TrEMBL record, chain A:
PANTHER family: ACETYL-COA C-ACETYLTRANSFERASE, NON-SPECIFIC LIPID-TRANSFER PROTEIN-LIKE 2. Residues 180-306 form the Thiolase C-terminal domain. This is Thiolase C-terminal domain-containing protein. It comes from the Bacteria. It holds the Pfam family Thiolase_C_1. Gene3D superfamilies: 3.40.47.10.
Automatic annotation (TrEMBL), chain B:
Residues 14-44 form the ChsH2 rubredoxin-like zinc ribbon domain. Pfam families: OB_ChsH2_C (PF01796), zf-ChsH2 (PF12172). It comes from the Bacteria. It comes from Streptomyces violaceusniger. InterPro entries: ChsH2_C, ChsH2_Znr, NA-bd_OB-fold, Thioester_dehydratase-like. Transmembrane segments: none annotated. This is DUF35 domain-containing protein. Residues 50-111 form the ChsH2 C-terminal OB-fold domain.
Amino acid sequence: MAIKAGEADLGLAVGVEKLSGAGLLGVRGTERADGEPWTPQGRYGSVAPMDGWVGTETMPGVFAQIGLEYLHEHPYTGAPLELFARISEKNHAHSTLNPLAAYTKRMSLAQIMNEVMVAYPNTRPMCSANCDGAAAAVLVSDAALRRLPREQRRRAVKVSASVLTSDPWQEACQVLPDVSTLTRQAAATAYETAGVGPEDLDLVELHDCFATAELIHYDNLMLCEPGGAVDFFDSGATWRDGRLPVNVSGGLQSKGHPIGATGIAGVWEVCQHLRGEGGDRQIGGARVGLAHVIGLGSACGVHVLERAA
Amino acid sequence: MPPEVPLVDYLVLGDHPHLVARQCRDCAARFFDRRNACASCGSATGFDDVALPEEGVLRTFTVVSVAAPGVPVPYAAGVVDLDGTSVRANLVDVAPDPAQLRAGMRVRLTTFGLGTDRDGVTAIGFGFAPWEK
C-alpha cells in the first residue's frame, strides 16, 4: 500500500510461523474441579466451557459444517466423505512434485477415507498440516523496477490486483464463521481491478485449510457456475493436468499451513509458475494466476498475478 | 425442586425451556452474546430479548471425534435454524453417526443436567433432538 501511495518504492513482505506440534487449534480444554460452584462467566454467561457442549468451536468441525452446508444448499446425492476425500487425494498427489511440502506422500482414496476421523467428513489427511514455515515477497514500484538489472526485471511478476476484505455481518456469521461472503467480495473486486476473469486463470492457490473448504472456494472464487463446485471438481478441472489446476503445491493439506506464512506462500507458488521456475510441478505456459488466503475473524486476501511482458 | 442454573444465559429454564436472542432495536439483527453495540448496524440503542421457537431445522452438522481434553467424543454438533435465527448446538438423543443425521431434518430443543456443584446447584445444558411431526 505504501508503494501504491508513492511513500516507498521497494518493500519486503515476510510471513513466518512456528506451529509444529501445536495440535488441534482453537481449543482450551474443559477440565473443571469436581463440585466447583457453577459461576456464569463471559459474553454468554456460561457456567462451563461451551466447546463440545454447545456445538463445536474446533476448526475441523467448523469447516466440516461449512462444507456439508454447501452440499445441503446445492443438493448432492453422492457420499460426502468420498467426495471430500477425492479433493484431498488430488492435493496429496500434487504434493509429490513439491520438495518444499511438509508431506510429499501420495495417498489412495481408500487410505484417506479410512484414516483417523477428526470431524466428519474431515479425516486427518483432509485437515491442513500444522508446520513451521516462512515465505517472503519483494515488492517494487514500476519506477524502481526500471532501475533493476534486466535479469531481475525478467523475473518480475505483475501484481494486477491485491485485495483485502473483511466480512460484513450476516445472519448466522457468529454461529458458524462465514468464509464465503468476504471471499466472493474479494474475488469480484480483484477480477474487476485486474481486468481478468476466472476464465483467464492458468492456476489457483486457494485456502484449503480442510478438504471441505476447497470445495466451497471453487464457487466463492467463481471458478465454476454458481452452485456447481461439485460438477467442476468432478470434471477433473482442478487436477494439475486439468483445465484450471488448483493447489498444485499440494495445498494446505500437504504443503502445510504455517498460518502466518500461508498467504505469502500461496503468492510465491503462483509466482514460481509465472516465472517458469516451477520445476517438476511447472504448469506449462502459465501467464495468469490467483492466490487466496483466509483468516478467521474474518479477513480474506486475493491476489491476481500476471507474468510481466 | 433443587436449584438449577442454565449452561448459558440465553437458555431459559422452566416448564417450557427455550432460547432467547438479543435483537437490535434499530436493525433487528440477532445475537446471543452480551454486547455494547450491534455488529450489523453499529447502533448502541440497545437490545430486546426475543424468545425463539423450540423447533427448527438442522442446517448442517458434523460428528466430532477428536476434541479437547475433557470433551466426551464422539459427539454430533450442528447449526439449527429456528425460524430464521441460527443457533449452534449439540445434537442429542441420536447416535453420533453421520448415517443418523441429515441436513434439513426437523429437530427440537431438549435439556439435560450437566452435574451438581457442592452447593447443590445443577447446571442445565441443551441440545436438539430429531423430531418428526
